[in-house]
Each structure stands twice: as structure tokens, then as C-alpha cells.
Design brief:
Elements lengths: L7 H24 L6 H13 L4 E2 H7 L7 H10 L3 E5 L7 E5 L1 H20 L5 H18 L3
Antiparallel strand pairs: 1-3, 2-3
Helix pairs in contact: 1-5, 2-4
Amino acid sequence: MKGNFQNEWHKLRANLLYVGSWLRTEVNEVLEPFDLTQQQFNVLRILRGSYPTPISTAEIRERMLDKSSDASRLVDRLCAKGWVNKKVCEEDKRLVNVLISEEGQALLKEIDKKMNDLDKILQVISPEEAKILNEILDKFGETGNQG
């Protein structure tokens, strides 16, 4: 990235914003044919990770990438599409337990194939470089969770 930057952190901020925007656009293009938003996709992936154990919408919200998303609304939309099932928690009637359906799992398998194509674009860096970059980006995640 070329430009007149005040320092390396200024350049880093611009790079992160640029790459983040590019990646969001690429992911949206993969998800659009499935009538799925990135937030809905995130919920499905969370549910796949917890399968076969159902989890509450509160726990989904805690695990989401976008903490400002309305997990209940997202679950309702996914339920309407047949990709998740929900029922009131027996132990605590205030909670709703959510479980990914077979249709939701099949959808994710199909999307995974498309995401693998997207991952190939990221392979301009080596696995070692990707590991180092992940470690560096994890530091930002740790910092963001402290505030």
C-alpha cells in the first residue's frame, strides 16, 4: 500500500481497513447466492461447532464475531429458512436452546467448498507467514477484549 503515512502504525491501520473491506466483499459474494448474511453464517458456524449440543442465544451472542448483532433475530431468520431448530430450555424457561439442522449442516458443507476457493487467494503468503500473521492479529483480539 502506497501513501503518505505518519508512521508504520498509521500504515498498518490503513492496510487492515483495506484488507478487511476487501475480504468482507469477497465473503459476501460467496454467501449471496445462498441468501445468507455474514452474521447468519457466523451463527451457523458457531452452531456447527457446538453440535450435537444445543446452545442458548446468549452463548451464541458471546461467541459471535460481531458482538452488536441481534442473535435472537438472526436465529429466528435461520429457523424460518429451516437451517436451525430452537426450543425453550427445560431448566430455564427464559433461555432458548438452538441446534443446527441437517439442512443447515448441508448448507455449510456447500459453502465450505466455495470458501476453500477464497482461501486459495490468501495463499499468496506461506503457511508460516499465515501463522505469524495470525499470532499478531490475535494480539489485537486480546487488546480489543480488554476494553
